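[INFO] parsing input record for Glyoxylate/hydroxypyruvate reductase A
[DEBUG] input buffer:
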Amino acid sequence: MDIIFYHPFFDAQDWLAGMEKRLPQAKVREWRRGDKRPADYALVWRPPHEMLANRCDLKGVFALGAGVDAILEQERQHPGTLPAGVPLMRLEDSGMAQQMQEYALACVLRYFRRFDEYQVQQQQQRWLPLVPHQQNDFTIGILGAGVLGKSVAQKLVEFGFNVRCWSRSAKQISGVQSFVGQAQQEAFLTGTRLLINLLPNTPETLGLLNQRLFAHLAPGAYLLNLARGAHLVENDLLQALEQGQMAAATLDVFANEPLPPTHPLWRHPRVTITPHIAAITLPEQAMDQIAANIVALETGQSPTGVVDIQRGY
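[DEBUG] output buffer:
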C-alpha cells in the first residue's frame, strides 16, 4: 500500500512516521513535484493540481481538515484535480469539536457577562456596573448543524442557554430548536441575540453574512464567525457595527489570510480578531481517523467523512 502526503506547512516527517506506525504495511512518502509514482491514498491540504490529476489508481483522498472548500475550488477552476470516482474524505471531529466548544463558549460568556464592555471601561478608568444580560433574552443561533455545530450547541445547552440551529437538512439535537432550509431562515434569525457561523463554505453560502441577514437579528446582536472568511461581507459588518445593529463581533477567519495590516477590522474597537485558531488539526487524532478509514476501505467497509462533491461537504 502506497500513501502520498502533501501539506504546505505541516512537518511531513511527523506524519510519515505516524502513518507508518498505524499502518505498518504501508509505504508513506512526501509528495514532491514531478512525482508520478503510483499511490493508493493521498493525504492533502491545498494540493497542487498536478499532484492528484489523472491519478486513477487512487482509492481515496483525505483532506487534512474539516473543510474541503479549498480543494473543491481547485476542482472548479481546474477540472480533473480530483480523480473521477475517487472518494474525498474530510476529518470529522478528530479533536476539533472540543476546541470549537472551548472557543465558542469563551466568546459567548464574554459577551453574555459583558466582559468586553468592562474591558473598555477599565481602559477609561470607569467604575460602572452594567445591567447584566438574562439567559431568557439571550437566544443563541448556530448556522450549521454538522459535527462541530452540533457539538457547540450541546455545550451551550449544558450552560442553560436558549439555543437554535439552522441547517440545509433536518437535524435533531436534544434541547435545541431546529430550523431547516431557506424558508425557515428568517424565523431562525428573528430574535437571535448571538449568531455563531459554522457552515461549510459552498457557492450557496458565499457572502451569507451580509447586511440583509444582520437586519433580521435582534438589535445589538453579536457575531462569531468560526467557519470561513468567504461567508462574511466585511464592509456590511462594519456598517452594521457603526449603525448599532450589531454590538460586536469575534472573527477567527477572513477572506484574505493573514488579514492585511491596513484592514479596518484591526482597528475597530468592537471587533475581536484571532488568527484562524478556533479549532486546528490535531495530528495524532487525525492520523487515527485516517488510518481507520483506510482500513475500512481496504476491507470493503464504509469510511466516515465522505464528502458529497455536489453539496460541497
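[INFO] The chain has ten helices and twelve strands.
[INFO] shutting down worker
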